Amino acid sequence: MYGCSLYLFFLLIGMEYLDARRKPYNVGKVIFGLVLIALCVFVLKQSPGFGDNSVFSRREPGVTHVLVTGGAGYIGSHAALRLLKDNYRVTIVDNLSRGNMGAVKVLQELFPQPGRLQFIFADLGDQKSVNKIFAENAFDAVMHFAAVAYVGESTMEPLRYYHNITSNTLLVLEAMAFHGVKTLIYSSTCATYGEPEKMPITEATPQFPINPYGKAKKMAEDIILDFSKRTDMAVMILRYFNVIGSDPEGRLGEAPRPELREHGRISGACFDAALGVISGLKVKGTDYPTADGTCIRDYIDVTDLVDAHVKAFNKAEPGKVGIYNVGTGRGRSVKEFVDACKKATGIDIKIEYLNRRPGDYAEVYSDPTKINKELNWTAQYTDLKESLSIAWRWQKSHPHGYGANQI
Ligand SMILES: NC(=O)c1ccc[n+]([C@@H]2O[C@H](COP(=O)([O-])OP(=O)(O)OC[C@H]3O[C@@H](n4cnc5c(N)ncnc54)[C@H](O)[C@@H]3O)[C@@H](O)[C@H]2O)c1
Ligand SMILES: *[C@@H]1O[C@H](CO)[C@@H](O)[C@H](O)[C@H]1NC(C)=O
Ligand SMILES: *[C@@H]1O[C@H](CO)[C@@H](O)[C@H](O)[C@H]1NC(C)=O
Ligand SMILES: *[C@@H]1O[C@H](CO)[C@@H](O)[C@H](O)[C@H]1NC(C)=O
């Protein structure tokens, strides 16, 4: 709009010059005016945003436009990279409360062509901005990654979790319904299962989450499920297990805010220990009823995870909901993980064995039969050491994440 009114302004000035055409000594001024108009149009066309907007607001045959919320974050940025590689048109919405502008810049440099990638800085908790985004863009689908996602933090700040997970998902869903966006791929988690009696976890395992993070995600799932019964929206809910790894080509990595390190996940802690940022790794609990006494988890590589998103999207059907666990189906103990981390980094990380952390359960791993069968998806990156080596390469070459002013 701003571009257009500027354009008009210069056009009017040009007209005045044209009016004075009968006076021959004004010919020079007329030409000057026309040159000004041309210059103005040229400059505006070069500036990002001009014309771009119309591309993202138009449906184009053969082009699928995906809104990636939380696309500046760890998983969202990897998903956006994969979508762009597969020729999707991508709009990232993120308020950078946790993500990295540096990740968005990497993507922008890889896909600078007009109409490929657009970044919108906005808060998904702000209904007005969410509505504006949906009104101004023609999305075919939403992959909703944006959230806060630390179990420990969720027990300390529950409202932050219900607000930024449950309530924000409701806002996104309302905007999708209002603007007729037909497909939703939702990021859920194995934390919605709580502490099931039986392993492995199937999609039919009852969900009894035991922390605000898991509960907020379960509530968001319930809202989506109830709504889906009344619409023809195509929905896929993916329940991820523990996500690790990074882009095998080393373009993206995981770079959480330094202040979130204390809540951090095991792979982050492993790299921090290897980098010397922290003195060593604390293994919490060695007396669990598992083979080596440490907890067992299912580690899923982010490359496999985003592949599951693309496959889920391709199989999404109007009026149907697909719910899938995304894990390898293999549990690994914390000891195994630590050994793999030592091998991947080549550093003899100091390990400290401590008492159990409250709220941790002994064993969690998925049964991926359903997603194998229905989406023809199988985890490919199942070598822990290999996944960690890839992630370590990025960490080592980016000791300060995406850089001081790109967090
Ligand atoms: N990392 C895991 O192991 C894991 C496991 C299971 C599920 N998940 C889910 O995957 C999704 C992505 O997780 P991640 O690990 O990439 O986290 P992340 O913190 O790296 O990314 C989340 C992104 O969302 C953005 N965001 C948060 N609140 C926002 C708001 N109100 N408005 C706009 N943007 C906002 C943040 O800035 C950040 O970029 C989350 O929904 C998470 O619950 C992650
Ligand atoms: C991001 O969104 C949250 C609400 O979810 C808000 O409280 C926070 O201030 C926002 N941060 C920025 C940088 O806009
Ligand atoms: C989440 O919501 C709370 C309000 O409960 C807000 O203060 C916070 O900034 C929000 N955003 C994030 C990323 O935590
Ligand atoms: C399943 O995926 C594999 C590759 O991952 C492919 O070779 C095979 O053709 C696929 N099967 C179906 C039924 O699409």
UniProtKB/TrEMBL annotation:
<feature type="signal peptide">
    <location>
        <begin position="1"/>
        <end position="20"/>
    </location>
</feature>
<dbReference type="InterPro" id="IPR016040">
    <property type="entry name" value="NAD(P)-bd_dom"/>
</dbReference>
<dbReference type="GO" id="GO:0003978">
    <property type="term" value="F:UDP-glucose 4-epimerase activity"/>
</dbReference>
<dbReference type="InterPro" id="IPR036291">
    <property type="entry name" value="NAD(P)-bd_dom_sf"/>
</dbReference>
<feature type="domain" description="NAD(P)-binding">
    <location>
        <begin position="67"/>
        <end position="382"/>
    </location>
</feature>
<dbReference type="Pfam" id="PF16363">
    <property type="entry name" value="GDP_Man_Dehyd"/>
</dbReference>
<keyword id="KW-0520">NAD</keyword>
<keyword id="KW-0732">Signal</keyword>
<dbReference type="InterPro" id="IPR005886">
    <property type="entry name" value="UDP_G4E"/>
</dbReference>
<dbReference type="GO" id="GO:0006012">
    <property type="term" value="P:galactose metabolic process"/>
</dbReference>
<comment type="similarity">
    <text>Belongs to the NAD(P)-dependent epimerase/dehydratase family.</text>
</comment>
<protein>
    <recommendedName>
        <fullName>NAD(P)-binding domain-containing protein</fullName>
    </recommendedName>
</protein>
<keyword id="KW-0413">Isomerase</keyword>
